Amino acid sequence: MTSAPRTSRRRRRAGRISAWVFGGILLAAAVCAVWIGIRGSLAYQHLESASEAAAEAPSVLADPSAAPALIRRIADDTSAARALTGDAIWKAGEHVPWIGPQLAAVSTVSAALDDIASHALTPLSHIAATSSLDSIRPKEGVIDLAPFTEIVPAAATSADALAAARETIGDIDPAPLISPVRAAVAQVSDLVTGAHEGVDALRRASALAPSMLGVDGPRDYLVVLQNNAEWRSLGGIAGAMLQLHVDGGRLTLVTQSSSSDFPIYADPVLPLSEEETQLFGTQPGRFVQNVTQIPDFTRGAPVAREMWLRQTGVEVDGVIALDPVALSYLLAATGPVTLPTGDVLTGENAVDLLLSGVYERYREPREQDAFFAASAGAVFDALASGAGSPASLLEALARAGSEHRVLVWNQDPAEQSVLDGTTLQGALPETDATTTAFGVYVNDATSSKMDIHQTLETQTTWWCGADQAQTTVTIRNTAPADAADLPSYVTGGGSHGVPPGQVKTAVYVYLPQGSTLLSTDAAGDAVTPGIGSGVDAGRDVLLWTVQLAPGQTATLTVRVRTPHTPVLLIRVTPTIGQASQTIGQRTPTNGQEESSAIAQGCDIPG
Questions:
Q1: Which of 454, 438, 405, 434 is CA-nearest to residue 539?
Q2: 214, 244, 152, 200: which is closest to 412 by C-alpha?
Q3: Whole-angstrom distance, CA of residue 594 vs CA of residue 588
Q4: What does pTM read for this prediction?
Q5: How many other CB atoms are found less than 10 A from the CB of residue 532?
């Protein structure tokens, strides 16, 4: 009779124990949640502070000695964020469904940023603390090459560490992340990628500069000045050329020449492939003006070198190309220069004077090219004399390089390989696991200088889900209605069957490697004979020819099927108002992707 009450009491006691245990678990979970929440909030504040300090990095270029203190400030915050997101409770939370990936992403980012601030940048910080950019300023026409040699090992160490951090952050799977965390990871990824690109560029430049500046003996370089008033794939026609001699850091301008000094060769001076001939004809190998028609400087530069050799007998060691926009950036750094004509060339008037004013003043192409070459020579003299702050010059060169307005090719394959993957190489864009890349390159087909009146706009976007990408190309002829009355050397004078005032343009659209063309749609005021096609360097290429009268506009829309990647970009011809590379969409959040698909008229499953 007594066993039942005892059993009942045991059950009640067990129930109370279970309740206490369950309650204890809930309390522990709540404490852990509060603990993680507080530490996460503090970590966020430290990362925000580090981000604000990192925004001051560009100012360090003007005063490298300030770099160590700035890096210490950033490291203090990143170390604190790492400690706050690296304890046992936080790590345990990383295994909890849903919340775990969020915590893991935050701790991974915190650790990667701390590795960068506390370790990756340390070698460069030591160099910055004891050096000055003024040490590379030319003195009596000579650049001291020793500072470049000192930077190489430090820059290499920092670049490798940044690459490792970028890879670590890149391995974070964005799929399970909530929108704010995903956006933060993408922002940090961009920051780290930018830092790596900058330090890697410094590593490459410091490794290559001494040899290019003649540390091992004299060198000669052909400088090709591209004229954006007449479009070519890499910028503009080769209007004028300079020969630059370097020896032991001393720079000397040897001679200058006009494109009109060169003959039209009966056959290409170097062999062109069957694919190249099908797309571009033989002009890139026969006309010096067309050496930048193929949108790959590693192929065009050797042709320019061979033409210079045949014309002058000089075998140059490399070829450098730049345009008036790049010159304007340099002039903004050096300050105004006075030309032999008495004109004062500045960063503000250079583009207008070189691409428009020169044609109002001079009718003969030889005189126009001479003015162009004299302007470039004056800028070179200013650089060689040490005009302008080194920091401003480096910023100008970096900007011009990022816009593909400065291109460099070396005859020595080992030296050229240092530039692999950089904008300076001027190669075709690559599609890989992280980037889907289109190429859009424009070429004047009027033999005119009317492209100062044309605008080029491009846009790219993912379309209807994860495996379709769309690119649009829009060209506008903004010339005045009476453009036909302009001088014939500006309008082309009706050559090639194009009435004066109208402009005919050949547009090459390079599709991403491995993609499949779905559709093309040409609309607007274009007069076109249709859309041709070809293949170049493993890429399908569309050829769209458009002819516009003043005030007319035409648009080409191209859609392809291609695997979805985090980055979608277009590399385009650098015109007066269009830089060479424009970034398209990064991978959107699920909500953004659905909204975009709905706006595009796509069917959304479910």
A1: 438
A2: 214
A3: 9
A4: 0.85
A5: 14
